[in-house]
Protein: Transmembrane protein
Organism: Psychrobacter proteolyticus
Amino acid sequence: MLKKFKEKSASQKFDTFLNVSFISFFIALNFLEWQGRDFPQESELQYSEGIITDTGFSIALQSIENPKQITLYGCSYNVFGFINTGSCMGPTYLEPRLGKYARVGWYYQPNFLGVSNNLPQLVSLDIRESEEDLQITYEDTKNLMFNQNMIGVLTTLIFGFGFIFFMTKLNNLINRPILYKEK
């Protein structure tokens, strides 16, 4: 196999390198962005109660005992989910529930490859006493993570095979033998 590779032209070697690099990038991206790695059992969740507060980002609870203490919760479910990608819901969805009592089930995402995410990850949410009660369960969150992971895998497969197909066809066009000679 290595002997065949050595016999290829420089452009064919570059195409092979480009294909392998592209696919490797998307596989690594899926691996790093995989949600729910070390996801806890429902019995291992920690729970907090408080008042829903507006942060302009995501769900935050204001402590009942200490009103100056506000805890922000993310929904990236991996260590590489930064604050801007870990929003649980938009402000317009959260607005009617501001100032309402809520109970949140959460966990800290364990370190992965030396990277940590210190933002508590929201798993369950129960808001009562508002015009529209809201309940997000443990199972809802597990299903959401599974669906998002599958979308990532399908996207990688579609773009990966599409890129390989495109590069193969392009290489065939570039390396096509000349059918006629100019006079």
